[in-house]
Amino acid sequence: MEWLVYLSGEIHTDWREKIQLGAKEHNLSVHFTSAVTNHEASDAAGDVLGDETSQFWRDHKSSKVNSIRIKTLIEHCDIAVIRFGDKYKQWNAAFDAGSCAALGKPYITLHDEDIIHPLKEVDAAAMAWAQTPEQVVEILKYVISK
Predict the structure, then answer these.
(1) How many Å apart are CA 111 and CA 91, to the nearest integer?
(2) Which residue, of 39, 59, 70, 78, is most buried by count of CB atoms within 10 Å of its CB?
(3) Going from the N-terminus, what domains does the chain have, and what CATH number goes with each?
(4) Which of residues 146 and 103 earns the better pLDDT score?
(5) 31: left (phi over 0), alpha (psi -120 to 50) or beta
(6) d(Cα 130, Cα 27) in Å, to the nearest integer?
């Protein structure tokens, strides 16, 4: 079986690449998916539907277009990894975690120890909390290979 792993959250570091490389190094039967991680492209996803004079409506249209991809990928994934970084608040990641919980999709949270408290409910519904991409790879290795 090839596992489908959805990578959600923070887009400003290389955590996705580290997980993908680790999975490849261990020959894990896994395929990774993700939301669009190019910030400018994501923000402009709804621009094809016409210009807006209000930033609210531009963001609204783009979030709906982006959600077509995100909702579909989450619904089809076997497991999600949801990364919360320390520089920006990832409300979208929290929403993805809630979607996973509502759909009964197992997920792993990935974040530093200093944000345990604000993420306590998100972590409580997660199957695991990892602090490094390498820990995520070890979890995937165990779950997929054993």
Answers:
(1) 14
(2) 70
(3) 7-141 (3.40.50.450)
(4) 103
(5) beta
(6) 21
